[in-house]
Amino acid sequence: xxxxxxxxxxxxxxxxxxxxxxxxxxxxxxxxxxxxxxxxxxxxxxxxxxxxxxxxxxxxxxxxxxxxxxxxxxxxxxxxxxxxxxxxxxxxxxxxxxxxxxxxxxxxxxxxxxxxxxxxxxxxxxxxxxx
Length: 131
What we know:
There is one protein chain. By secondary structure, the chain is mainly beta. The protein has a six-stranded antiparallel sheet with strand order 1-3-4-12-7-10, with no helix packed on it. The protein has a three-stranded antiparallel sheet with strand order 9-8-11, with no helix packed on it. The chain has one helix spanning 126-130; strands at 12-13, 19-20, 23-30, 37-44, 49-50, 53-54, 59-66, 68-72, 78-80, 85-88, 94-98, 104-111, 119-120. The mean pLDDT is 96.
């Protein structure tokens, strides 16, 4: 058994290649091999968001605070709120982030396939975000 004490893993800024706006990533867990699962708490300031991306084995988002938005490629923008659980299917192109006026925090859980949890794509344009 291993206990990760709160505050023992440093926060990181979401890299501008993968995020728009101010995003903080707090690692929660990375299960040791042979397990494949990892998780992080991600906080998006108002209007901050991910770039378009996919996950080879899918992703689960547990919204814990604020008001957010999520969209799958070709679908409508959906509002997400605390208590919502969002499942993104393997290979589904999508983005998620905060609403224009309110920050949002979610816990992101995903699994590795061949050492990879995400494939990053182009940024979500302001026009796409406001659609």
